[in-house]
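Table S2 (text version). Query chain:
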Amino acid sequence: MIHRRALVRSAAAGLSVSLLPAAARAADSASRTGRVASGDVSLFYRLFGAPGKTPVIVMHGANYFDSYDWIGVCEQLAVDRQVIAFDHRGFGESTWSASKNYSIDAKMNDMRALLAALGWKKPIVMGHSASGRIATSYAAAYPEDIEKLIVVDSGFARDEEGGKGPTVGNPPLVFPSVEAAMERFAKLKQVPRIGLDRGRAEQALTKIDAGYQLKRDPDFQNATPVGGAAGKLELDVWESLAKIRAPVLIVRGLKSDRWTPDLVARVQKDFPQYQWATADSFHDIAYYAPAELIAATRKFFG
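Corresponding structure-token output:
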């Protein structure tokens, strides 16, 4: 569960950081937590490590993930640098967008707000699943603001849990019990950690009178903000890939369904400069094969 913490101000980073009591540090893997405002949301983050080598920003997927799923990986990557993982707008401990703005450009602006608060000029960017699309868009839109790009088992244009286009007014997912929530996600072909780990499921749910509500805005796929225009920074995925100048590593799960043979062949043909790594894993590589992911990532760091 999320512990109550006293916030302090970091003069070096210029952002609020939570100091965990000893018991909470043991449970939450010694990360410091805090919030950064971005547009109409408040973003929750976990910050690991101390300043050193090029820092890393890690972004989770959509089905169902948040920064909690990346604690173990981030802790291992942070032995010689700072690593931040945050909950996307509408997910986990971050707030829901009042305007229902879940466009790629809004999420890229969230990244920029976090990086500005941290004072990071040119980080390594890692995006898993749906965030692979966000990470590639960021690398294409801001080529001077990224050192390297890591795409973790992302099919790029594949949607998570549903169709495309504007959609608002969806009811929140509410379950009668934690076990019922786990059962729902355990039915997916690519089962995420929430469907297997009760402790993780408890982190993803909020107790309400009607039962247990998933910490995810049911309108999380809406790309056009209410009363506003569609994002201007969004590009076709292939346009984005063609604009990237930073070194790229693609990590794919050998048991995952995100990378079809046709997609692998097209990327390898069009972008032969990309590096590749595989993990004996389903889609949730941070859960099923963290050691392989960490090893591939560290090798790419150089």
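Notes on Table S2: The two ends are 36 Å apart (CA to CA). The longest helix spans residues 104-118.
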